Amino acid sequence: MARAINDAGLDLIENFEGCELTAYQDVAGIWTIGYGHIKGVQPGMVITQQQADQALQDDLSGAENVVDGATTGATTTDNQYGAMVSLCFNIGSANFRASSVLRDHLAGNFVTAAQAFLMWNEATIKGVRQPVAGLTQRRQAESQLYSTP
Questions:
Q1: Which helix (H) or strand (E) holds 13?
Q2: Rounded CA gap, 148 and 11, in Å?
Q3: What's the domain range around 122?
Q4: Contact predicate 87/98, CB 8 Å
Q5: Is 102 within the bounds of a domain?
Q6: What angle do CA 122, 51, 140 make, to 5 degrees?
Q7: H or E segment and range at residue 127
Q8: pLDDT tens, N- to C-terminus, the chain (149 residues)
Q9: In-domain check, residue 111
Q10: Nearest CA-CA partner of 5 in 83, 118, 115
Q11: What is the rounded distance in angstroms from the CA atom of residue 99 to the CA atom of residue 88?
């Protein structure tokens, strides 16, 4: 059984994602609902709080499995794990697996891994890759959580 995200990591995700029960387009124009859920979301879609909570759990289990599998054999604190699950949840599995956050973590370079979160603060908006203030704040919070014993 995969590890589960800790409360600090879950709070971070819920805080930065927020919960919208009506579908909306995020800064990159991706249709989103609930806590950052994107799979199968259509304009005009409306869900209940219970459906939002369930979608979050489903989406989280995927990110938890990816981080758990990628960090097998590496010493990983609950806060490091929570921060990496938050990152994976937000940037996707393939990006997480290729990230310097994971590479540095596996090498035991925890200070460098914490700094590497900050590289994931951009989104493509109207065809232009650019920093997003909300992502910068989220990456700082993830980096801080990662670094907290």
A1: helix 7-17
A2: 15
A3: 7-15+57-147
A4: no
A5: yes
A6: 25
A7: none
A8: 669 999 999 999 999 999 999 999 998 999 999 999 999 999 999 999 999 999 999 999 999 999 999 999 999 999 999 999 999 999 999 999 999 999 999 999 999 999 999 999 999 999 999 999 999 999 999 999 999 99
A9: yes
A10: 83
A11: 10
Determine the Cα–Cα distance for residues 105 and 143; give it in Å rounded to an integer.
12
Q: Which helix (H) or strand (E) holds 38?
A: none
Tokens 């801080």, located at residue: 144
Q: Which of 14, 17, 20, 122 is catalytic?
A: 17
How many residues appear in the chain? 149
Task: Check which CATH number belongs to the domain holding 84 and give it.
Answer: 1.10.530.40
The model's pTM is 0.94
Is 141 a domain residue? yes
Q: Please spell the DSSP secondary structure of 40-92, one letter per residue.
A: T--TT-B--HHHHHHHHHHHHHHHHHHHHHHTTTS---HHHHHHHHHHHHHH-
Q: Is residue 24 part of a domain?
A: no
Active site residue 17: yes
Structurally, how many domains does the chain consist of?
1
